[in-house]
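Kindly inspect the following:
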Amino acid sequence: MSARRLLIVALLGSSGLAAPANADTLRDALVSAYETNPNLTAARQGQRATNEGVPLAKANGRPDITVQPTYVENVVQDSGGSVVQARGINVNGTISAPLYAGGGIKNAVRAAENRVEAGFANLRGTESAVFSAVVGAYMDVIRDEAIVDLNRAQVGVLTVNLDATRDRFEIGDLTRTDVAQSEARLALATSNLETARANLIRSKEVYIQLVGREPGQLEAPPPLPNLPLTPDSAVTVALDSNPDLIAAREAREAARFDRRAANASRLPTISVFTSSSYSNALNSISSNIPGFVADNSALNAQAGVRATLPIYQGGQPAAQIRQAQARLGQAQELEIAAEREVIAQTRASYASWRAALDVIAASERAVSANALSLEGTRAENGVGNRTILDILNAEQELLNSKVQLVAARRNAYVAGFTLLAAMGKAEARDLGLEGGTLYDPVADYQKVDGAWIDWSSQRDSVTKSTRTVDTAAQKAEIEPIVTDGRSR
């Protein structure tokens, strides 16, 4: 099975394209963002505008047909003239077509086509960036919900500890210091809980911003398959598939054709033309010459070849060529800059992903060890070998290791997806969103590539992104903690 198909099966499963009212899987969130995220829908409109550069460039090489009708009313006439015309109509028509334009039209078309290709790559990059942000927001909500639960449980445990400490203080088994230590730790845990709740609310709001709706009960994401074994293999794929790098290459090619087109500004142009004119005096001609009858209409036609040889244009052609040369140099440098960025991003994402996996393994060991340490500390406290502070410290260390584990799992998943994005493998078709109609930028371009009719048109665009003004302000509600049959 291909790597792409494995990614589709493992990452997104077999759910249909239609998403429920509240997204509860990663695929649902990605589909919603794909359909309604304004940054992505705006990028598609921008690509449609870029597509029109090709027919605009081609139009310069096509025939130009004009008709100029004129109606004239001679309100002041020379009464002494031998022939007087009161009114008339004139119709002039011209057809012209370029034969030679110094290569300017041909190269302008090629430059426009390369900009369309660059636009395709930029659109892929926007998809990848939006999806990466959605994955990050999705994992942030899951992480922060888990941290809220951990801190809430810690508050519950410390509340029970404080009650027990107070009871033992009442019978003289502990001191006021032990009670104060328990109270301080409970207050700190409560503060941490409120911070965690605020972080969860922020993550939910970011999720709404990206996905367009409130998060439901989010399921754990499936594993990311087909991640590279080495940073070098990742870079190899990225250099071939990263959309930002592809866009930079196409932009450089477009600038190269612009440089060629600039030469045409100081070369001769040749065009063919034909024109005709028709005039009619509408029987308004009168003559003071006896026996003379003037014609009221006339028809003329001509055809020819016209050459234009620029002699001096105020230095404009040279400036245009220098400008095109500078822009070509800029595009070449930006291509190298994009390549550097892709290499650095891919290697850094790989390192972050591998480090996060190591942190997960270490955190799992820490959780296991801290759980055992807490159990032993409590047992030793029962025989007087450990203090209340020792128990509180053990409980805090266990909480810290659990929070670190939750964060590490989030970081590993996001880093892995970021690595796929840097490799150019985190777009709609890579993520198995084919269950419904996907936006096809090539099909949109093909609709206008050969367009030549002046009166062809389409409907104005309708907004596809969704507003979030009607969504409720997010909360981090906490269910009551029940211990020993009592709600706290």
User: Anything to note?
Assistant: The first helix runs from residue 3 to 12. DSSP finds eleven helices and eight strands in the chain.
